[in-house]
Write a structure and sequence with these properties.
Layout: E1 2-6, E2 13-17, E3 22-24, E4 30-32, E5 40-42, H1 45-70, H2 76-88, H3 93-108, H4 113-122, H5 128-137, E6 141-145, E7 148-151
Antiparallel strand pairs: 1-2, 1-5, 3-4, 6-7
Helix pairs in contact: 2-3, 2-4, 3-4
The structure holds zinc ion.
């Protein structure tokens, strides 16, 4: 019996023989098979290579999705500028921060921590993560889903 495990360190898929206690990943990490999650199993050694390939493709897909998500939204670029322009006139720093949250909610529906940071940084306001936390604490904004924020 063979199985596919994923290295917890480098996230690469590896084929193993079920019953081994450990296996050494190409990154140098020792994967403990007693605790590792077996992704798929097969009796056929030839099927194992295919299963490893499938799991690798799945992992790669996940990484592409992640990298895409980490990019600034292309659609949001114009919106960031408009929100920054409007917030610029809002007065003191706290008023600007709130104007950014309201502006982004209006332009994008909900916004990410990155949208918020991009606009605050363009306004010369530091520590956007802290400002975002303050808005959540004061219930000026809420979080309808992970990394999506909206003015109340
Ligand atoms: Zn590894």
């Amino acid at each position: 019996m063979y199985g596919v495990v994923v290295c917890s360190k480098c996230k690469r898929a590896k084929g193993v023989r079920i019953g081994q206690k450990t296996t050494l990943c190409q990154c140098g990490h020792t994967i403990k098979l007693t605790t590792a999650k077996i992704k798929s199993r097969t009796d056929d050694a030839r099927q194992l290579a295919k299963a490893v390939g499938l799991e690798s493709a799945r992992l790669r897909g996940g990484r592409e999705e992640y990298e895409k998500a980490a990019q600034p939204p292309r659609k949001g670029r114009g919106a960031h500028g408009r929100v920054a322009d409007a917030a610029e006139k809002a007065g003191n720093r706290d008023a600007k921060v709130r104007a950014v949250a309201v502006g982004l909610s209006r332009e994008l529906g909900t916004f990410s921590a990155r949208d918020f940071a991009v606009v605050l940084v363009s306004l010369g306001i530091s520590s956007p993560e802290k400002r975002l936390e303050e808005l959540i604490e004061t219930r000026f904004i809420y979080q309808p889903s992970p990394d999506r924020y909206k003015a109340v």
